[in-house]
Design goal:
Structural class: alpha/beta
Strand content: 15-25%
Bound molecules: 3-isopropylmalic acid, magnesium ion
Oligomer: single chain
Helix content: 25-40%
Largest sheet: 10 strands, mixed
CATH architecture of the largest domain: 3-Layer(aba) Sandwich
Strand order of the largest sheet: 2-1-3-12-11-4-5-10-8-9
Number of domains: 2
CATH topology of the largest domain: Isopropylmalate Dehydrogenase
Order of helices and strands: EHEHHEHEHEEEHEHEHEHEEHHEEH
Length: 361
């Protein structure tokens, strides 16, 4: 099979980690008899440097022509990078939001799994994570606060900023269905997270999620307020199977969940629309402080590539092989600095990619 993959290396550690994921994909191609063709796409700061804007219409069209897009990360250090002297709508993050919207990638899946080999990197007490945990955050990605109208105005000499949070029932229904579908294939539990004790958008969220739940008698639904969820994630992460939530809550909770797994460098993600197309990226940021040093953890990007094989190409065997290779490399004691612990072998970004590629059989 020929895999026609768009590649957004992006900014910061993006180019380094994507290079490793491509290495692993090429190896998958060799072993399983596929060819990967890559189309390089510019997004974020890398696009600003060339085109003056973080995303061009041409890039959107090129992305649409691919079967799937693999991405690194975008953005820089807001205190020092010239990108952040541009108006907000021209900064790197605006490009990422725009491509998600343009491709209608409303369903963002962020799995947080504690590998038994990384128990030591998990900051929680051992008794809380005995036996590991495996949860999936289903984050709504194209609505809510990040896409609402916003403005800053001066009223009687006082600056006032507005951001609006809107959800309609169609947006809620389609993401809720995705969450129930996935939960049905996992442990059959959806925890819908909202702030229904305060927000109207959350009250509608709850109502629609309850309607959708009726079509899934085998999946258990529970509701949880977002502040409580933030606490429960560090108190008892094992209670969760699928966490379904709106855009901003999902952004925040997924960073928290990643840390509970040991490092944000381990958290993959898939952003999907109604078709087989998807954008696959690590959940972490561009980490400008370590960019170019060859120390970034490429595992989240490699696991994102595995999600791409599974969801966009239906190549389950290949995806399993990548995930198994990651586990085996960890078992063999190799670690990047963010997950390093005593007695293990510390290696850099590119060596981690080499090791994982070697373990693909
Ligand atoms: C993420 C990131 C982005 C988001 C930023 C860079 C706009 O934090 O993918 O979680 O908030 O969605
Ligand atoms: Mg985030």
């Amino acid at each position: 099979m020929n895999l026609n993959i768009g590649v957004i290396k992006g900014d910061g550690i993006g180019p380094e980690i994507v290079t490793e994921a491509m290495k692993v994909l090429d190896r998958v191609g060799e072993v399983f008899g596929h060819t990967c063709s890559y189309e390089q796409l510019l997004l974020g700061g890398a696009s600003i440097d060339v085109h003056g804007v973080p995303l061009t219409d041409e890039t959107i069209e090129k992305a649409k022509a691919c079967d799937a897009v693999l991405m690194g990360s975008i953005g820089g250090d807001a205190r020092t990078s010239p990108w952040y002297r541009l108006e907000p709508s021209k900064r790197p993050e605006a490009g990422l939001l725009k491509i998600r919207k343009a491709l209608n990638l409303f369903a963002n899946l962020r799995p947080a799994v504690l590998y038994k080999e990384l128990k030591g990197a998990c900051p929680l007490k051992e008794e809380l994570t005995e036996g590991g945990f495996d949860l999936m955050i289903m984050r709504e990605l194209t609505g809510g606060l990040y896409f609402g109208e916003r403005k800053t105005v001066e009223k009687d000499g006082v600056l006032t900023a507005y951001d609006s949070l809107t959800y309609n029932e169609t947006e809620i229904r389609r993401i809720a269905k995705r969450a129930f579908d996935i939960a049905g294939k996992r442990r059959g539990k959806v925890t819908s997270v909202d702030k229904a004790n305060v927000l109207d958008s959350s009250r509608l969220w709850r109502k629609v999620v309850e309607e959708v739940a009726k079509d899934y008698p085998d999946v258990t639904l529970e509701h949880m307020l977002v502040d409580n969820c933030a606490m429960q994630l560090v108190k008892d992460p094992k209670q969760f199977d699928v966490i379904l939530t709106e855009n901003m809550f999902g952004d925040i909770l997924s960073d928290e969940a990643s840390m509970v797994t040991g490092s944000i460098g381990m958290l993959a993600s898939a952003s999907l629309n109604e078709t087989k197309f998807g954008l696959y990226e690590p959940s972490g940021g561009s980490a400008p402080d370590i960019a170019g040093k060859g120390v970034a953890n490429p595992i989240a990007t490699i696991l994102s590539a595995a999600m791409m094989l599974r969801f966009s190409f239906d190549l389950d065997r290949e995806a399993d092989a990548v995930e198994r290779a990651v586990a085996e490399v960890l078992q063999a004691g190799y670690r990047t600095i963010d997950i390093m612990s005593e007695g293990k072998t510390q290696i850099g970004t590119s060596e981690m990619g080499d090791r994982i590629a070697e373990f693909i059989r």
